[in-house]
Write a structure and sequence with these properties.
isomerase activity; 2 domains; 7-stranded parallel β-sheet; UDP_GlcNAc_Epimerase_2_dom; binds uridine-5'-diphosphate; UDP-N-acetylglucosamine 2-epimerase (Non-hydrolysing); WecB-like; Rossmann fold
């Protein structure tokens, strides 16, 4: 079986790493399975791309479509045009896409129109929020996917409700958590650990990059000032996403606790998360990692496509206003964390399950 694996953005790199490992293992066991890795170039900053390939031992991509930035349509269109050429020149039995970025949807459409089977890893998750570009990518991708690999039974249920045959839905667990378990003994402190006086439990991690939180400069500044005020004497480490950085530009902010740092490599970032007091974020993936690590997480969104991180895990959906974040954060300071658990099958073996299933197809 020849599989073309698509990766375009930071969370994709983290998700494909264990899948490639699982394929390599099968190859060394004598199975006939091979892969071609296509990087669409959606994320191209060293900090968001190369570092992840190096740290997670992902092989150099066989092709880089180098689409770079653009509007939603420009980027999606550019990926489709380039990937069609790539797939014509390098036919395969299956295109495997992960997550919910533009590369996921664009490559799934191209493959399906060329009568190539599509496998979607992290299928079926839904926020119900059609203002999120990712939600549109999820719905479109799942409408043309052949093999659905899900992280939760609620994701599988969403697909069943959409009329997908149950025999094509495979609840396998979470590949992002495979990567976490495979690298926990490799994580290490970033250079600024000592310089900033960081110690386990004395700082908070902040990440913000969703358009709804960062695209309006005034409300972003209001949010940052509010968070800075809310945390008392805790330091806040803020690895700033390029999108957020571009909005803030050269703005001079008067913040006493927030320390801006570059987007972190995976091994430093996981060290920072694992040792933090709490996390404030609008990321989906991070709420899964904090769930497994038992770190309190405050998600600055009104919806989530990962309900298990709230029902079982440590995630707290607080909305996008500083008032509500402050209210929920204060409650947490008073009462602690109500419950902690790890969702079913988030055991580090999802990638192996995926490859086992694909080999039987
Ligand atoms: N991440 C990282 N360094 C950072 C910020 C995030 O390694 O500075 C990792 C994080 O641990 C998670 C992934 O990137 O595994 C999530 O990416 P992001 O928040 O960009 O995407 P989302 O999950 O929201 O789609």
């Amino acid at each position: 079986m020849k599989i073309t694996i698509i990766a375009g953005a930071r969370p994709n790199f983290i998700k494909i790493a264990p899948i490639i490992k699982a394929i390599n293992k099968k190859q060394s066991d004598g199975e006939t399975i091979s892969f071609r890795l296509v990087h669409t170039g959606q994320h191209y900053d060293k900090n968001l791309s190369d570092t992840f390939f190096e740290e997670l031992n992902i092989p150099h991509p066989n092709a880089n479509l180098e689409v770079k930035s653009g509007s939603q349509a420009e980027q999606t269109g550019a990926i489709m045009i380039a990937f069609e050429k790539e797939l014509l020149q390098n036919p395969c039995d299956l295109v495997l896409v992960v997550g919910d970025v533009n590369s996921t949807m664009a490559c799934a459409i191209v493959a399906k129109k060329m009568n190539v089977k599509v496998a979607h890893v992290e299928a079926g998750i839904r926020s119900g929020d059609m203002t999120m570009p990712e939600e549109i990518n999820r719905i479109v991708t799942d409408s043309i996917t052949d093999y659905f690999f899900t992280t939760s039974t609620s994701a599988s249920d969403n697909l069943l409700k959409n009329g997908i045959e149950s025999s094509n839905i495979h609840f396998v667990g979470n590949v992002m958590i495979d990567t976490l378990y495979q690298n926990l003994d490799r994580i290490f402190a970033p250079n600024f650990w000592k310089e900033f006086g960081l110690e386990t439990g004395n700082y908070i991690i902040l990440t913000l990059h969703r358009p709804s939180n960062v695209d309006e400069e005034k409300s972003l500044i209001n949010l940052l000032e509010g968070i800075d005020e809310m945390v008392g004497d805790k330091k806040i480490i803020f690895p700033i996403h390029p999108r957020t950085k571009a909005i803030l530009g050269e703005t001079n902010l008067n913040l006493k606790n927030i320390l801006f740092v570059e987007p972190q490599g995976y091994l430093n970032f996981m060290y920072l998360i694992k040792n933090s007091f709490a996390v404030i974020t609008d990321s989906g993936g991070i709420s899964e990692e904090t769930t497994v690590l038992g770190i309190p997480c405050f998600t600055m969104r009104t919806t989530t496509e990962r309900p298990e991180t709230i029902e079982i895990g440590t995630n707290n959906l607080v909305g996008t206003s500083i008032e509500n974040l402050t209210l929920e954060f204060t409650k947490f300071l008073q009462n602690g964390l109500p419950k902690k658990g790890i969702p079913e099958l988030w055991d580090g073996k999802a990638s192996e399950r995926i490859i086992d299933i694909l080999l039987k197809k």
